[in-house]
Design goal:
Residues 340-369 are annotated as: Disordered. By secondary structure, the protein is mainly alpha-helical. The chain has helices at residues 41-71, 78-96, 98-107, 113-147, 156-179, 208-241, 250-285, 295-307, 309-320, 322-332, and strands at residues 181-188, 193-200. Helices cover 61% and strands 4% of the residues. The radius of gyration is 23 Å and the shape is globular.
């Protein structure tokens, strides 16, 4: 989950532990070799621009999502609590991972010391685990309520306990990336250079444990959750499609269809963004791509694609959900109009804690989706 441990990425030779690679012809060049495409000025400008946009959009969009859920009572629903949990996980990546990953990619040297060497890959893996577990919980909760007609949804106390559980489990699963990590000084005698390196260091000095961990994570972090989520949303969609109800409930069914479509699209975007990175990471652990001349560049491109998932969700909410769209516009216009939240755009089942903000303006509280 961390940047490739390379001083350059020609892949013509290897030195040290992990995937740290050195060019056999290093004695002819100073760091910043012409064989590494990421050293080209145009590529570096592109990478800086891409990472900066991801960080900016991620910070802005996810902060807005959390702010709206905290600020407006009508937005404090179980599904929105889980959406806020997704946003918090993405904010973790935007603040604690991406800036350091960009610098390490451009400089080929870890400038941030031993503590962050262990924390950055751990934080990124933690975020991904929290995201996929939260998406799974959302799918299963909607499956429980829609397919089995259970009117009583989770309470906010239960949702908070589930979120705490997802963070705890995610921390345990991500822990090996913090434990089996090494910060060291790498000597390059041919050019009398000493650089700081942050790389994986698995027990017994072999990559076998790393390969096992990657396969295990691919199953737990990607294949199994997406299989469960896909099954849940397929069942939900079939149920809603075939549902016959009185005309008075048609609006309710349509709202559920719209929200289910939006949440399913969030999963599709997440899976699409992370698939190339997962495949390439596994191929790297199996030593299938380390010899590619542009290994580092390919890794970086796939990492950028994966990180796009950290800002995609707020865009989807604003595009497909009326309440989020109105809320975003209110913030940008420096307005405070709770009446802008409409029932057809809400995630709420029913008000169980008294009149909502909208009732002060003669607008009924949001209804079920």
């Amino acid at each position: 989950m961390s940047p490739p441990d390379t001083s350059n990425s020609s892949g013509e030779g290897e030195a040290g532990e992990g995937n740290f690679q050195l060019n056999d012809s290093m004695g002819l060049h100073q760091p910043g070799f012409h064989t590494d495409i990421t050293k080209h000025l145009g590529v570096q400008i592109t990478l800086i621009t891409a990472y900066s946009l991801i960080i900016l959009l991620g910070l802005l969009g996810n902060s807005l999502v959390i702010y709206m859920i905290i600020r407006y009572r009508n937005m404090r629903t179980v599904t929105n609590f889980f959406i806020a949990n997704l946003a918090l996980a993405d904010l973790l990546v935007n603040t604690l991972c991406l800036p350091f990953t960009l610098v390490y990619t451009l400089l080929d040297e870890w400038k941030f010391g031993a503590v962050l060497c262990h924390m950055v890959p751990f934080a990124q893996a933690l975020s991904v685990h929290v995201s996929i577990l939260t998406l799974t919980v959302i799918a299963l909760e909607r499956y429980r309520c829609i397919v089995f007609h259970l009117g009583r949804r989770l309470t906010w106390h239960s949702s908070l306990l589930i979120m705490a559980f997802t963070w705890t489990v995610s921390a345990v699963l991500a822990a090996p990336l913090a434990i089996f990590r090494e910060y060291r000084q790498e000597e390059i005698p041919s050019i009398n250079l000493r650089i700081a390196v942050c790389s994986e260091k698995w027990p017994h000095g072999t990559s076998r444990d790393g390969v096992i961990y990657s396969l295990f994570m691919l199953l737990l972090q990607y294949i199994i959750p997406l299989a469960v989520i896909s099954y849940a949303y397929i069942c939900i969609w079939v149920k809603l499609k075939n549902h016959i109800s009185p005309s008075s409930r048609n609006d309710n069914i349509n709202r559920r269809k719209k929200t289910t479509k939006m949440l399913a699209l969030v999963v599709v975007v997440f899976a699409t963004c992370w698939l190339p990175f997962h495949v390439f990471q596994l191929a790297s652990d199996l030593d299938l791509v380390l010899r590619f001349e542009e290994y580092k560049f390919i890794y970086t491109v796939f990492h950028v694609v994966a990180m796009c998932s950290t800002f995609a969700n707020p865009l989807l909410y604003g595009w497909m959900n009326k309440n989020y769209r109105n809320g975003f516009l209110m913030v940008f216009r420096c307005e405070d109009k709770p009446e802008s939240f409409h029932p057809e755009g809400s995630f709420r089942t029913r008000s169980v804690r008294g009149p909502a903000l909208n009732s002060r303006n003669g607008v009924p509280p949001p209804t079920a989706v």
